[in-house]
Amino acid sequence: MGTIDVERLRSAVKSTIDNANQDLRKGINQALHEHPETAYEEEFAHTTITKFLEDRGFNVKRSTYGLATSFEAETGSSGRLVVICAEYDALPQIGHACGHNLIATSSIATFLGAAAALKQSGASGRLRLLGTPAEEGGGGKAKLIDAGAFNDASAAIMAHPMPKNQLSNESNGWSGLAAMKMIASHKFHTEFRGKTAHAANEPWNGVNALDAAVAAYSSIGLLRQQIKPDERIHAVIEVGGTVPNVIPDYTRMNWNVRSPTIAGADKLLSRVKANIEAAATATGCELNYITAPTYSNMIANKSLCNTYVSEMSAIGEKVLLWREKPVTASTDMGNVSQVVPSFHGAFGIPTAPDVALHNPRFAAAASTDEAHEVCLQCAKGMAMLVMQVLLDDELASNARGDFEHDKDW
Prior knowledge:
Layout: H1 6-19, H2 21-34, H3 43-54, E1 59-62, E2 71-77, E3 81-86, H4 100-121, E4 125-131, H5 140-146, E5 153-163, E6 176-179, E7 184-193, H6 209-223, E8 232-239, E9 250-259, H7 262-283, E10 286-291, H8 302-314, E11 319-322, H9 333-337, E12 342-349, H10 360-365, H11 369-391, H12 393-405
């Protein structure tokens, strides 16, 4: 970074995040964990985070880009732009079982640390903390992309918690992962419409929408035998009828179809739809699809990941650069990685050995002091990654080159 004093910047990042520790713990982390909200309903989180930032002197725009629970805070002028993504939605019934309270905390801490370092440097550069609602199925970032939230960005960054035991053991000591690659996912609902009738007195006059849902679910269960090991198909019946002596005239199912790439997901989706449509035909039901934004596979940027590993090493953290096989889960950050150089890392939080994401016990782990401290360590590394992108012309150029020419890494 030329004549820029890197150690001075690291010191500014560390002191700023350390000084904000308790405010972040109580005002963001715990507050969001105690008030879980699902996709596009994150009113408490939106109000809490925007007020937290306003109280610290930042200019904040609320309900941005046409989304009621999105927000934007910016600092700096001219120069390159880095977007820091904050997630804060929760899962139905099991709350922050994906740890989005920690994601919000780490992203806000990153913004605070990088803003302080940028001010101290006196250099040009722009930071944008972007509130990205509805990661859990609603595709908030896909809508934000369409609305222009990532236009002109040199990089977009965030990190996700995961159980530390999935990363680390006594021999390797990894505390995090830089390249958290994920797979593509098609998300949609199906509605089957039939005809109601008394199930005992005149069943022949009914068209059973529950039979269509069951037939679709069962045939997809057989299809799973013929799909690739890194592909996934999931479905639940959200509406299945009311009482057993009334033939259901309406059912609704929720589906995820995943494959490592969009091309693979498209092919698998066509096979899934063939089974769904066969079920509708066999039962005589009408079929309707309700589609949601597709989640693209996550493209890891080599230059950004290498820089993050180096910065985490500078503060004593041992971070794994990458894994050959992607995580068989999906994120709308994958959509962002298709349009701008992106970093989506992972930090490991302490859990029991048998605890995984999307589990109530992971939600409990995401509220601990230990998890909070880990997410702030990650924030220190991400804040310095931000500063490197803003101030180091070579890194910014290399990250763009990776994005344009090395997407298979």
